[in-house]
Amino acid sequence: MKRQIINDSGAAVTEALEGMELSFPDLVSYDTDRGLIRRATPARDKVGLVSGGGSGHEPLHAGFVGRGMLDVAVPGAVFASPTALQVHEGTLAADSGRGVVQIVKNYTGDVLNFTIAGELAGDHAVDTEMVLVDDDLATDTDTDGDADGPGRRGTAAVVAVEKIAGARAELGGSLTEVADAARRVARTSRTMSLALQAGTHPGEDRPAFDLAADEVELGVGIHGERGISRARYASADELSEMLVTPLVRDLGLGRGSAVLAIVNGLGGAYPLELSIAARAVHRLLGAQGITVARTLVGTYVTSLDMHGFSVTLTPVDADLLKLWDAPVRTPALNW
Amino acid sequence: MKRQIINDSGAAVTEALEGMELSFPDLVSYDTDRGLIRRATPARDKVGLVSGGGSGHEPLHAGFVGRGMLDVAVPGAVFASPTALQVHEGTLAADSGRGVVQIVKNYTGDVLNFTIAGELAGDHAVDTEMVLVDDDLATDTDTDGDADGPGRRGTAAVVAVEKIAGARAELGGSLTEVADAARRVARTSRTMSLALQAGTHPGEDRPAFDLAADEVELGVGIHGERGISRARYASADELSEMLVTPLVRDLGLGRGSAVLAIVNGLGGAYPLELSIAARAVHRLLGAQGITVARTLVGTYVTSLDMHGFSVTLTPVDADLLKLWDAPVRTPALNW
């Protein structure tokens, strides 16, 4: 039986947001009425950045609100989209007169509600640009020609998109420039994930699905969606290879390529495991002459307490690295 | 059955350190021959800081090597002290001519080996000061008069000690001044921990000990040492109160006190849980008129993948806060 450190399953999300505000009052402020987390000191005269989506992926997105990253995050309930009204309020709150870039992971409800909010913002004379993040290679439908499907899901690449767009906005970029920088990262990033154990919803005592002792779920989604296949439980090196190989192939990486790598814990993976996985990712890419220019290793985009990890690769050049290296100060990402 | 993302249980520690070096090559360098992690660019003309101890507590200590914190970390095997020779090499490597402060968690093997290394350093004309961290209130023996016992164990307060001492050293403090700052934090910090599930050693498929479905282990150690008592599994608020109440009493905190609070995941706790626990800690302290001046929330001092958390409280004044707020750049702590 899986037990959790919670009070009330229905209140877990709001209590966690309250905890974040209490812990980092100089960074973020939780507006409970409007259901949004915003910078404690709103930015002035810059393009605004709003993101959001279902909760259960902590520290995403509220943990990335602050200087150099988001202005506002709009969290829904666990694995449920924020409402259109909530996104609308968040979009207006992110505006300081130069328009707002909405960063949206590709899920039907999120896309719908951010789209409505973008249209409503226009009524308030706030210009918006929506950037779709759809990095999950496991859900790529190009191969079977299903062009009308929902497309790839948005997962951990959203951290890179928010960081790069945040830096571009902080440096004075226009609405178009910030949206372009975000879209470039979104378009070129791909992620693969695997789980050794599914996540357990707050208040439940069993993981969302069972895996046999010799199986891992490959291509698992951050809402606990089943993956594309089962693979055999194997060494960290072999598991990492299952993730890295399709990414390298899809992105057409090879000798001379340079990438940003995000080795992301899905909630229940502990630091020793993530460092071992990061080693494997470096060695696999290094053996193919691919330079890992920067690495982020940690627990950033989760699926509750799912035990597993994801690897995200983003091709980078000097311009992107400069934006990646720009200062950031949020509850969950700092340098 | 608990499975892990590892290759070989015997190599897990060194592979994780390799992963850290590969991921953060601008921050840390892993000297495999001497078994130590040091800054990629050694500091010059400042008091050196070395810490270390058994592994299995990642990101501690290697994750705290970098500007504003440690110069060198000497990791042992999982839950095993580094050798005296290793600590000796680490102490010399941390010296840039102004002496070295050794930060040591209070465990017999660690104390012994750092003491030997300190004596050996003298032979090399390197002055050392050893600072003992013994914050674990669960092992306080004052109450039963066992003055000859091993004393309190060292746990998560070591992060505060390393941060404060690191800042003091970076600001040009003398060997005595840096050691004094570290000792002040060590002397006044207390920690309480609890586990919902014990950690699982790499390569094992069962946690180190079992807990009944309605029990938590209160006062558990970071090496999986059994706690001082079993308590009933309860809400996050009630669990947090079991930790905070004895801390407040022991430290004599009350209206007008100001503290630094570290809400630390022991490995398997996921971000949503830690934010909910942080909320509880703030509310419990706030209700008693105690100001939480700064909060650190995250997974910093672990017991492998133990599911649980600890709370550390350190009384602070303006001088300590200035040192806490000073810049830090390491794999695991940044601002």
Folded structure, characterized:
Two copies of one chain form a homodimer. The first copy, chain A, has 335 residues and is of the alpha/beta class. Chain A folds into two domains: 9-188, 3-Layer(aba) Sandwich (Rossmann fold), CATH 3.40.50.10440; 190-324, Hypothetical Protein Tm841, Chain: A,domain 3. In chain A, 32% of the residues lie in helices and 23% in strands. Chain A is built from eight helices and twelve strands. Chain A has helices at 12-23, 84-94, 108-123, 157-170, 175-188, 236-251, 271-287, 318-325; strands at residues 28-31, 36-39, 48-55, 72-78, 100-105, 128-133, 190-197, 215-218, 229-232, 258-265, 291-298, 307-315. A six-stranded mixed beta sheet of chain A has the order 1-2-4-3-5-6, with helices on both faces. The first copy, chain A, has a six-stranded mixed beta sheet with strand order 9-8-7-12-10-11, with helices on both faces. In chain A, helix 3 (108-123) links the parallel strand 5 and strand 6. Chain A is globular. The model of chain A has no long low-confidence stretch (mean pLDDT 96). The interface between A and B is large, with 63 and 63 residues.
